[in-house]
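re: the backbone from monday

yeah here it is again, tokenized this time
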């Protein structure tokens, strides 16, 4: 077996050009294993990116520098020599370099339209596109809801979202960040303070483990009507009981 990124399993998306490669299980009962040669290629049978180099153990760290490109598939190719000079060549599963975090989208404060409230990959954007309601104020002091869309990653996709709530942008100190998988909505039940602006922070993480966060513009809890003032008739600064016109 040959694994890229992790000893116990192959990593399909990596975020660094400095690549760890592990291999195990090769043996020869007659003449034994003499040496290993490892290379990187765009195909599973030719090391056209990084040519074969000799290694004597089951691990290598290869600095690919600028020789591999963001978003393209590559293979780790291993050639194994026995004592008689015979070889066996094995390639890893493909791996993709993704060294850029996801692109952030838009966070909407408020409830989601009940019509078409089904969040699959194919219709999530369409369901939200019909009603982009973003509330800046709300009366309810025990519930805050939000939804988001248009977060995306062109290379390794979105693996999961984390979402939290705080009184400052990008600082979810009131309700800490929680992993919500791939769902694109959240409801909090809590005692919220009237007059306080609450900010929603959404963090999107891609298949390579890179993350990027975005905050909403804030929603203020206001459960009290306006304070009544004074109404004057006339232009004298005080109420006039009689008018000549």
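seq for it, each position gets an aa:
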């Amino acid at each position: 077996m040959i694994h890229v990124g992790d000893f116990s399993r192959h990593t399909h998306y990596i975020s660094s050009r400095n690549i760890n490669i592990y291999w195990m299980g090769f043996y020869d009962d007659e003449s034994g294993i003499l040496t290993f040669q490892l290379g990187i290629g765009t195909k599973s049978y030719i090391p056209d990116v990084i040519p074969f180099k000799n290694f004597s153990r089951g691990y290598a760290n290869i600095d690919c520098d600028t020789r591999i490109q963001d978003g393209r598939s590559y293979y780790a190719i291993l050639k194994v020599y026995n004592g008689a000079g015979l070889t066996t060549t094995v390639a890893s599963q493909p791996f993709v370099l993704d060294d850029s975090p996801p692109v952030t989208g838009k966070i909407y404060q408020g409830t989601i339209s009940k019509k078409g409230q089904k969040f699959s990959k194919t219709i999530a954007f369409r369901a939200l596109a019909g009603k982009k309601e973003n509330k800046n104020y709300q009366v309810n002091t025990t519930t805050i809801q939000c939804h988001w869309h248009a977060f995306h990653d062109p290379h390794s996709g979105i693996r999961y979202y984390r979402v939290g709530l705080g009184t400052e942008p990008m600082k979810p100190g009131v309700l800490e960040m929680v992993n919500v998988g791939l769902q694109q909505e959240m409801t909090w039940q809590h005692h919220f303070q009237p007059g306080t602006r609450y900010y929603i922070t959404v963090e999107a993480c891609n298949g390579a483990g890179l993350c990027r966060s975005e905050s909403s513009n804030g929603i203020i809890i206001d459960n009290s009507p306006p304070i009544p003032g004074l109404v004057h008739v006339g232009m004298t600064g005080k109420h006039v009981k009689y008018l000549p016109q």
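The two ends are 98 Å apart (CA to CA). Helices lie at 124-129.
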